[in-house]
Every structure is written in structure tokens, then in C-alpha cells.
What does this fold into?
Amino acid sequence: MISNQVLSEVEFNVVGKRPLRPDGVDKVTGRAQYGDDTNLTGTLRAKVLRSPHPHARIKSIDTSKAEAFPGVRAVVTAKDLPFASLSKDELGGEYTALKYASDHMLASDKALFKGHPIAALAAVNAHVAESALALIQVEYEVLKPVVDVREAMKDDAPLIHEDLRTNDMGETGDKPSNIATHMSYSTGDIDKGFAEADLVMENEYTTATVHQGYIEPHNTTAFWNSDGQLNIWTSTQGSFQVRGTVAGVLRIPVSQVKVIPMEIGGGFGGKITAYLDAICAVLSKKTGAPVKALMTRTEVFEASGPAPASWMRVKIGVKNNGKMTAVEAEIAMDAGAYPGSPAMQAIVCAFACYDVENGKVDGYDVVDNKPKTAAYRAPGSPQAAFAVESLIDEICGELKMDPIDFRLLNAAKEGTRRIEGLVARRIGLVECLEAARDHDHYKAKLDEGIGRGVACGYWPNRGFQSSVVMTVNYDGVVSLIMGSVDIGGTRASIAQQAAETLGIAYEDVKPTVVDTDSIGYTFITGGSRTAFATGLAAINAAEDVKSQMVSRAAKIWDTDEDDIEYVAGIVQHKSDEELKFTFKDLARQLATTGGSISGRASVDPTGEGNGYAVHIVDVTVDPDTGKTDVTRFTAVQDAGKAVHPSYVEGQMQGGAVQGIGWALNEEYFFDDSGKMMNPTFLDYRMPTSLDLPMIDTVIVEVANPGHPYGVRGVGEASIVPPMAAIGNAVHAATGHRMRSLPITPGRILEAGWENGRS
Amino acid sequence: MEPFDFVSPTTIEEAVKTLASAGDQARILAGGTDLLVQMRAGRRTAPLVVDIKGIPELNVLSYDASKGLTLGAAVPCYKIYEDETVAKVYPGLIDAAFLIGGIQIQGRASIGGNICNAAPSGDAIPAVIALRGVCNVAGPNGTREILCEDFCTAPGQNALKNGEILVSISIPAPQANSGANYLRFIPRNEMDIAVVGVGTSVQLDASGQNFVSARIALASVAPTPVFATEAGDSLAGKAVSEEAIQQASELAMAAAKPISDMRGTIRQRIHLIGVFTRRTLNIAIERARGG
It folds into this structure.
């Protein structure tokens, strides 16, 4: 049995190989510099006082005792942020956005979730800071909380923001509501589509709030120098995003802030939002010293950005031959304290695997008393896929149709118009389904007690802005400078694309991630965009280097540039075979022929290829305890072209593992007062290595026409199918259709009791 | 974490004296796998931490076929399961020692600490109760013995009085034709708190076909670990049979008085007590028969 397959059609010299990662030695020897390794002379430690209540009005804050505590250098509250001294009239249309951003850093009038920052202080060390924190006195008026998305949507629900009115397809609602936005897409005629169907099935599904679970907690060191320059060392997926947020909340120009991204210990979308940075900045301004803050794990769970819980209703109509005639979905997601759940992505992704003429999707972005949700790997798509792919499995059961055959019959392909109106370019879902169908796993006999499930997943992938600068050193080694933080091996995969374009060895490209002052604007590392978009920037910068190398050769040979060509790392005269430089030979001549060469490129590409994944999973379920064990798992995914197949496999396996956790055990567990009961890794049960089989992978390569090497993003589609695939496998093993996540042992037992089995 | 004073006595007398004078200001530190976590989380404050790992009597691990096992209260789990004799004679104890925390935790955590922490879910406690464990306590008024089933008095509270420490646990040498087992239910395969736990021990007659006696103890189904005497006693004198085991499991279920919380519901826990009582009894019987 082959556990990792790559189905390649096109081979390159460097792209597609598996070289060592440039950051590898530092990481395995413990030398890599993470945020908490930042230790500037005289650094103070900050701690944040957080609301113990999920919903409360802040009546007063008395910081005097804390300020007087020996070792405390400064205390800040929302009053220390610019928002406090700006009137609604002054801010005009900016008011609500600044209030939300500022209050998210430090609450001004209400605490909207347990863990909401109320005040912060800086002290000579973390222990003094912790002791002093207890001396800050806050008087709260405790309000009724709501932590369930459906409850929050009710007319009589406690209002999170008294002035929030629903944006209902562009129309503003006439009364306050927790529903921030209602959005909708439709295509064709669903009434006609359902009327044509031989079978229509409809069900409701729910998923719980889950966390990305990155190992490294959020951390920041800020130093606001006396010349006004603010420097921030932090763990982030987007240094320019942090710069923008901090400058926005502090009302200073972006160029006054420099963000230095440190090595990152995991993000998965959760390290895009800035939490501690502005707090440390204002504490640094007050004290004149660098200020560092580090979240505890409990703070990470309670006050960073988990993925939303969801309620979904899905309806699908099919002909007896399996052809889908109409689809419909309603998806409500809780954004937590401030609007911004990925309900929009959820409705766009819900049916993106299928080519259906008639469809309608409605999404609701709902606020409630949970931490403000953040991105989590393919935000919105995993929840939607759990509902849609579970219902399709039920339909396949009714039709007695093989679930892969059903999906092949209905699969989206080049030219399929999706529900939001975009038409698919060349995509690889059919090829993934065929690879899954032909895989040894899918053909393997099912032993007694084993249930098998399959599901598909979609993520559109992203483009957006990236900048790269490349300098040629006189020994022929190229320095590759970029603004994309490396969270998944992109230093290697972008260096590979640069080396491929220049026709030089991978080892002759040295990639470095730099701060916001040292490179042009670069969007976050997220959305599965970096290997694609920053890769394109590197390719374009390499082309710039190539043309400058050609001009330099022209100067040396005193000939016309048009007479020179650059082929596979060799600069040569087109007609005079004697005139030829290797890249390194020419590099050695640069110092005496005009100095170094720098290539540069800034891009904002739109040719990202959509990503599709198909997962096959086998489970056993202990009938006495309801415990599910995943016994075999195969992940198939279209990578376009896997630049570094090992890292693509890592992304596929990582997404599958996070999906297994989401499917079986992970959830925010709230008590009756709306407080999270399990903010530790002991009780927030992510899978350990003992809970997982080896995740087998099949990389399918259907070239993305929007990239010279065919690259598609690969970081996210892999978390989309596992929940439904596991739910479908549990059904196959037990006969119980599980429509709520997580599929815990307790829920499986209860399903058995409800179905009349003991 | 708040600052605290730290002392490391090297004799029982010194430890008792320190604890007696500090009263409720002191906390005993063995492996620290509960105490330090509780202190970091702010659930316990301890102005004085008394590390008892330097006291020789608390580090004893000795087995004698006539006297049985003496297990010092500070002996970490890994030493227990890596001791070939102890592992062979007390597989029912090893079951618990092997699943407390993970490998790193087992390098520090002790059975004595697990008992003193008195969590309803403490994995070692039902195992030790089933094995007739006795807690040897030293205090200002000398030494005394407390049966393990009487040691835990409430969640996080034990029978130790001011100035007393748990020195060791004595477990009698196994009777002929006896066997024991501990199993727990967790949703993952390690690093978790028991949803339920069941420890059992059985003694069979020479034929291996009849129960002479049995002991059954339960975790995570009451404010303290439960010694389900009726369930165990119901087996005495009966032939080994599915019916007898089923009946004992139903009595164990009746002895369980769990709550519903994030780890499980009342119904789920009572159901699982039945399942795991049957499973542990079957393993204990197999071990008693020499399997």
C-alpha cells in the first residue's frame, strides 16, 4: 500500500521536488526566534484584566490601587484609546467600525464575552503584574447572555449592540437585532427544480464553536520610541494586517508603525486579528519602556478568535438517476461579540462541488456573547459541507447509489456557474473523485463493524497583493525578500519557484521574511494564497532579475540585448557560442559592471485556481460506549502543481486531523451562565497522536491556468470534508445519522437509546 | 501564580512539624501535577509549599510475598510500572499507573498524590480500593491507618488532619487465584479525565469457576470514589457466569450517583458503569485464572 501518491503530468527541475526547508535547522535545534523570545532591555510585562461575565455593562473601573502597587508602571483602560476622546459627529461614518475595533481591544461600555479585555497594566515582571491585576476594581451590571446562534436571532433575545440593525440585502432593518447581516444568492428557479425532483430531502444541522488550537499562544512586544516610532514584534499571519489595525485604533499613520513578524507557532487563520498589540503599544507609550504580553492558554480559548457555531437547514431535490435538480440552504453563524462570521463564505461554498441549475442560499451573520470569531482554515466551508455532504449521503442511501458515482454525476467542472455567479475555470474535482474511486482504500473490503464514509470539500483560494524583492549577490546566490509570513513552508516553496524561474539551484536562493518597513504591502498568509500569489511575485521578480542580467551581459559584450538570451540559468549570445555566462559567472562580474542587481515585483493576481478535496474514512464505533475510532483515512486533493509535495501532504494531513477533532470531540462547552467550561487542552479535546491513524494522501495535479507552474492553494480544502465523511462513516457503522457536531460518544449512545437500542 | 515559600523536609518528623505549624497555609507537593496546575489556574493558593520528595519513607517501593507492597506516597508512576516484580504481581495497579496523564506526567505523578488530591475521577483510587489498599498516615499524634475507601471525604478533600501526611500505601500480597483490573472511559485515547472508571478485584476458588470474593470501586460517579460493596459482595460464593457479572454490574450502576457535566450525562455515566464493571470483571477473572 502506497501511503503518499503524487499524480503528476508535468515535471520541472525544482518545482515538485522535496528540498530541505530553510528554517528547518533553527527549528529543530530550538534556535528559531518566536515572539516570546523577544527580550529588549528593560522590557515590562503586561497582563490583561478580563471580564468574568459574558455580558455586562461596565459601570466603573477603579485602577488606583493597582497603580499604587509596587512594581506597576502603568495601567490602561479604554479611556486611553483615541476612540474615547472622539465624538460620534467627528467620526461620522467611521464611528461604528472604530468603536468595534477599539472596544475589541479594550471594552469601553460593555463586556461582550467572558475574557473581554477591560483593563491592562505593565509591571516589572509577570508575577507583579498578575498580583496587581487583582487590585483593579470593576463594577459590573450583569446582563443576560446569549451564546446560541438560534437563540440570539430571536426577537426577545438579549441585544449585544443596542444600535445594531440588520443589513438585509442592503436594506437596514427598522429595529435593533443581533442579526448583523442577511445575505442571499439564487440561480434558476428552485420551485421548478424541486417540482421536477423524484426525491426531495431536507434536514437541519448544527456545529459547535471550535478553536484552531495553535500551540503558540498570542504574544506581542511593543516599543513606542520617544521619536514617535512604534515597533511591534509579534506572532502573526499578517504583519501588514497588524500594522493597519494598530494604526487604525491608535489613529496614527501606518508608516509610524513597524511590525516585525517573528516565527509563528501555528495560526490556521487565528493569528490574523491583533489582540495584544495596541494594548502593549499604549502601555509602552505611557511608560517609555518596551512592553511584552503573552496570553495563557485559557486566554487564547476565551479571548482570541474561534470558528463560529452554526445552524443550517439544507434541502436537495434529485431525479431517480441521481441528477440534482434543485438545492437550498439557510446558514446562520455566530460571529461572537462583533459582526463578521464567515456566513457569506459558507453560502458560497455550500454547493460549490455541484453543477445544479436551480439553487438558493441564505446566510445570517449573528452576534452573541462569545469571543469574536476569526478565520479558521476555509472559514465557513467546513460547517456548510457537514450539512450538504451529510444530506447527500442520505440521498445516496435512498437512491441506493454509490456516493462517488453520485458526486461524479453532479460534479462541478470547467464552465459550471456557481451560485454566486462566478464561472469555474479549469478545476480538478472530477479528477479527485476518480482518484478516490480508484484508490485501494475505496476498493478495500469492509470488515465487520467498520463504516466507511466519503465527502467532498471546496475552498475558492485567494489571490491578493504580494511583494517580493530579489538581490543577486556577487557569489551568485540570490537573496529572496518577502513580506509573507511562513506558516506552512512557503519560504521553501517560494524559493523553489524563484529558482525554477532563474534556472538555478534551490540552494542558491536564500529566502527571508522581513518587517513592514522592508518590503511592499503584502496581504496575510491565509486564504491558501501565499504559494500562489507570493510565488507569482517571486516569479515576476525573477524575470526582472533575468532581464537585468541580460542587460549586464550586453554591456560586458558590448552588444545589443536582443542578441542575448537567458536559457536555464545561462546567459548566452544567440549567434556567438563563445559568449556565454553561467548565472554565477555573471554574478561575479556585477561589482565591476555597475553594481548589484535587484529584481522586484508587486502583484495582485486574480487567477487563483479553486481547490477541491475528497476524503475517504473508515471508522469503528464501540456499541457499548459510543466511542468512534478512525481506523483509516485517505485525503485526495487537487494541488494544481505541488511545489513541495511534502508540505502539500502536510497541509492535507493537518487539515484532515483538525477535521477529525472538529468531527468527534472538539467544542466550546458553555454553562447556563454563558461561560466556557473547558478552556484548557485537557478538556477542549483535540486529537492526540494516539487518536489518529496515518493520514494517507493523494495529490492530484490539474494545472491552474492562472499560474505559470499550475499552482493552486492547498492549505484549506483539506479541513472541509472530514466532518461529513466521519458522520457518514458513523452512520454506515451504526445506522445513526448524526446531524450535530461534535459526534461525541454520549451523542452516539443517545442516538441508540432514541432508536430503541440499549 | 502568587509568590510562595518553599520547604523541603528530609524527615517525617520535620514535615509533620512544619505542616502542623503552618495549618491551612501549607500544601504538600509530591509530583506537583495537580498542585502546580491548580495554583497556576488560581484554584488553590498555597503560601507555603512543602515538598515531601526528599523524605526516604515516601520513596519506598518494596514488595514482600508475606507483607505485600509498600508504596511510598511520592513514588512516581513510571517507577511502579517499570518495576518488574510489582508489574507482575499487581497488574490491576499498573492499569491505573499507566494511564494517569501522559508519559511526561507519569514521570512525576504519584499514586499517593492521586489519592490525596481526592478527585472523584482519580484513576488510582478505585484500583487501590479494589486491591484492599491501606493508607499509612503520620501526624503530630503518631501514625494511623486509613482504609483507602475511607480516605477521600469530598471533592478535593481527604481524611488527613492538620499536620498529617500520607507516608505510604500498603497493599496486601494477592491471594491465590485472584486478579484485578482498572479501566476508565475517556473520549480520547490518552490525556483525559475519566468519564467513569471502574476498578475490580476477584478471588476465585481453586477450580477457577467460582467467586470466593470480589471488590468493585467506581470513579467519577459521586463526590468521592465509590466502594460498591453490594456489587462486589453479590459475587461471593457464586459461580462465574454472565448472569452473576450482569447482576454485579447492575448493583454497581445502582451505587453510582453521578452528575451531568461537560464530560458526560447522568444516564451515560450510569450506563458506562455497567459496561465497564462487566469489562473489568472479565479481565480480572481472566487474570485470576492465570491468563
About this structure: Residues 195 and 264 of chain B are 6 Å apart (CA to CA). Residues 56-171 of chain B form a domain with the Uridine Diphospho-n-acetylenolpyruvylglucosamine Reductase; domain 3 fold (CATH 3.30.465.10).
